[in-house]
Design brief:
8 strands; binds guanosine-5'-diphosphate; SRP54-type proteins GTP-binding domain-containing protein
Length: about 300
C-alpha cells in the first residue's frame, strides 16, 4: 500500500539492520548492538530514542529472553510499536461533548496544513458534521483562496478575513462565535506557518489559541501539528517549538506516499508524548488515513 511505498527512505536505511541481524551472534552482541543503535540514528530515529530501544534489547539479551536475530527483530518492532502507542496515547480525535468542537492546526508552510484541513473537513462532513473553516493565515491571500477551494470540495463553510488588517486571533474569535450561533459541529482553524519571522509567528499562534478559549472556554479541543513526512530529524525541533507555544495534542504526518523519512516521527512521539492521529498519503480529499502504529512499523521493517 501507499504507506509501505512511502516509507522507502527510512526502510532503505534500515536495510542494514536486517543485515546485522542475519549474522547475529551472541558472542559479539555488544558490537552488534552498537551498530544497531548507529543504524537507527542514521534512519532518523534520533539518538535518545535509538538508545532507549537498544537498551531494552540489551537488557532482554542479558536476561536470556532474546537469543536469535529473529528474536531481536521481533523485539525491535514491538518496542517501536510500543513507543508509538504507549507514549503517544489515543489516535482518535477527542472533540469533547459540547458543540462546536474546535481544532487548531499548526505547522510550517509547505508541510501540508491546508491540504490536511481539507481532508479532515471532508472526513468529518462525511460523518454528518457541519464544519466551519477559519482561514487563519491572514497574511497570504493565496492561502485563504486555497482553503476556500478545499471548503467547497469538502462541503464545508469558511470564514475569511474581512480585510488585510484583520488579525488571525480576531478572525478565529469571530469564527468560533459564528459556529456557536449557528450551532455548527466542528471549527477547524488554519494558521500561518511562515518561518522567517518565527518569534512573531509563535506569539501570534499563542494569541489565536487564547482568543478561541476566550470565546469558548475549554477550546480548542485539539491542537494538531502537521508534519511533513519527508523532513528528517529537524521534525523534532519543529515539534518541540510548537509544543512549547501552543501545547500540541496530536500530529498529522503528511506525504507518506512520497519518499518519506517516517523514522523521525518516532522520536517526536517518544520525546514529546504526542500521538499521531492521521497520516496523509496523497493529494486528494480521500487521502487521509487514521494512524495505525503496527502497519507503520510493518512498512519500516517488512
Ligand atoms: P501548507 O503550506 O502547509 O498549507 O501546505 P499545503 O497543504 O499547501 O501542501 C503543500 C504541498 O504538499 C501541496 O502541493 C500538496 O498537494 C502537497 N501535499 C500535502 N499533503 C500531501 C500528502 O499527504 N501527499 C502528497 N504526495 N502531497 C501532499
Amino acid at each position: 500500500d501507499r504507506i509501505f511505498k512511502g516509507a522507502s527512505k527510512t526502510r532503505e536505511k534500515l536495510g542494514v539492520v536486517d543485515e546485522l541481524l542475519t549474522y547475529w551472534n551472541l558472542e559479539d552482541a555488544e558490537d552488534t548492538l552498537e551498530e544497531l543503535e548507529e543504524a537507527l540514528i542514521t534512519a532518523d530515529f534520533g539518538p535518545r530514542t535509538a538508545l532507549k530501544i537498544v537498551d531494552v534489547i540489551r537488557t532482554k539479551i542479558e536476561n536470556g529472553d532474546l537469543k536469535t536475530g529473529a528474536d531481536i527483530r521481533r523485539e525491535l518492532k514491538s518496542s517501536i510499536v510500543g513507543l508509538l502507542t504507549q507514549r503517544g496515547g489515543s489516535s482518535e480525535l477527542s472533540l469533547g461533548d459540547t458543540k462546536p468542537a474546535v481544532v487548531l492546526v499548526v505547522g510550517v508552510n509547505g508541510g501540508g496544513k491546508t491540504t490536511s484541513i481539507g481532508k479532515l473537513s471532508h472526513k468529518l462532513s462525511q460523518q454528518g458534521a457541519k464544519v466551519l473553516l477559519a482561514a487563519g493565515d491572514t497574511f497570504r491571500a493565496a492561502a485563504a483562496e486555497q482553503l476556500a477551494e478545499w471548503a467547497e470540495r469538502s462541503g464545508s463553510q469558511i470564514v475569511v478575513a474581512k480585510n488585510n488588517k484583520q488579525r488571525p486571533d480576531s478572525l478565529m474569535y469571530e469564527t468560533v462565535d459564528r459556529a456557536m450561533r449557528e450551532e455548527l459541529d466542528v471549527v477547524i482553524c488554519d494558521t500561518s506557518g511562515r518561518l522567517h519571522t518565527n518569534t512573531g509567528l509563535m506569539e501570534e499562534l499563542a494569541k489565536s489559541k487564547r482568543a478561541i478559549g476566550k470565546r469558548l472556554p475549554g477550546a480548542p479541543h485539539e491542537v494538531i501539528l502537521v508534519l511533513d513526512g519527508t523532513t528528517g530529524l529537524n521534525m523534532l525541533n519543529q515539534a518541540r517549538e510548537f509544543h512549547q507555544t501552543v501545547g500540541l495534542t496530536g500530529i498529522i504526518l503528511t506525504k507518506l506516499d512520497g519518499t518519506a523519512r517516517g523514522g523521525a516521527v518516532v522520536s517526536v512521539v517518544d520525546e514529546l508524548g504526542i500521538p499521531i492521529k492521521f497520516v496523509g498519503v496523497g493529494e486528494t480529499v480521500e487521502d487521509l488515513q487514521p494512524f495505525d502504529a503496527q502497519s507503520f512499523v510493518d512498512a519500516l521493517f517488512p
